[in-house]
Design a protein that fits this description.
The structure is a single chain. The chain has 251 residues and is an all-alpha fold. It has one domain. The protein is built from ten helices and no strands. It has helices spanning 2-23, 29-51, 65-83, 85-92, 96-101, 110-117, 125-150, 155-178, 204-237, 243-250. The longest helix is centred in the last third of the chain and has 34 residues, at 204-237. The radius of gyration is 19 Å and the shape is globular.
Length: 251
């Protein structure tokens, strides 16, 4: 029953990502169609491989297969960012409140704690990922609401939350890799390790959702840096535009 509920929730989160990252981007309809097609193809590929047991322990040798899928998506995203100006413009065009608000779904990290309670996922990975996501997601919801009601938030507040979100994801990735059974670098040996993350629906988290969450944090960091640059330029070149307005305009 938990797997069915998890599949429905994770599927809904995936759809929410498509709406925010593609639907809200200022790109042409044809480009949105292509982006949706690429996203659906990747999701279908991950689901098919997982259904065939392609992410099970030992399939990829000493390296966790879900982590390989995670790396493929992250490397693809970074490559697109560095080599494709249109991709950079599209990401920068996504409303800041959308990038922050989508992280509110991370309260679904409670699934990690439930899987741990059922003996299907070991600590410290499950507890760290679970509570970390719940905290980051729980902060994202009022933070996004504040952005809507006030049109802006202090850059230090948004930057601190963004750093916390990145730290949570990186910690989960590292702990997950160090807890994976069958790897020579396994440090945390409590059974059953991270086996649940290699089967449906939970494999969608490392193979699809975590890279997308990292993308949102990266995009927020870029926008905050742009706001900082404009603020410095404003301070040096003109007294008619306050730093607060400069940050609002970029965000």
């Amino acid at each position: 029953m938990l797997d069915v509920i998890g599949a429905l929730v994770l599927g809904a989160i995936g759809m929410a990502f498509l709406v925010v990252l593609i639907g809200l981007a200022a790109i042409r309809p044809a480009s949105k169609f292509i982006a949706f097609a690429i996203a659906v193809t990747w999701i279908s590929l991950i689901v098919t491989i997982a259904a065939l047991g392609g992410f099970a322990t030992g399939v990829a040798g000493p390296f966790p297969a879900p982590v390989m899928a995670f790396l493929v998506l992250v490397i693809a995203g970074l490559t697109a960012w560095m080599a494709w100006p249109a991709f950079r413009r599209a990401v920068r065009s996504i409303p800041m409140v959308g990038l922050v608000g989508i992280n509110g779904v991370r309260v679904a990290g409670v699934f990690f704690l439930i899987l741990h309670a059922e003996g299907r996922l070991a600590a410290p990975f499950s507890t760290s990922a679970g509570w970390g996501d719940i905290i980051v997601g729980g902060i994202a919801i009022p933070l996004a609401a504040l952005m809507v009601s006030r049109d802006t938030v202090p850059r230090w507040l948004l930057g601190s939350w963004n750093a916390l979100g990145i730290l949570d994801l990186i910690t989960a990735i590292v702990l997950g890799a160090l807890s994976a059974p069958g790897t020579p670098f396994r440090v945390f040996t409590e059974a059953p390790g991270t086996n649940a993350m290699g089967i449906l629906p939970w494999v969608m988290i490392p193979a699809i959702l975590v890279p997308l969450f990292l993308l949102t944090h990266f995009a927020i960091a870029v926008r905050l840096r742009a706001a900082h640059t404009e603020e410095i330029t404003t301070d040096q070149g003109s007294s008619s535009l306050s730093p607060k307005v400069a940050v609002r305009r970029v965000a």
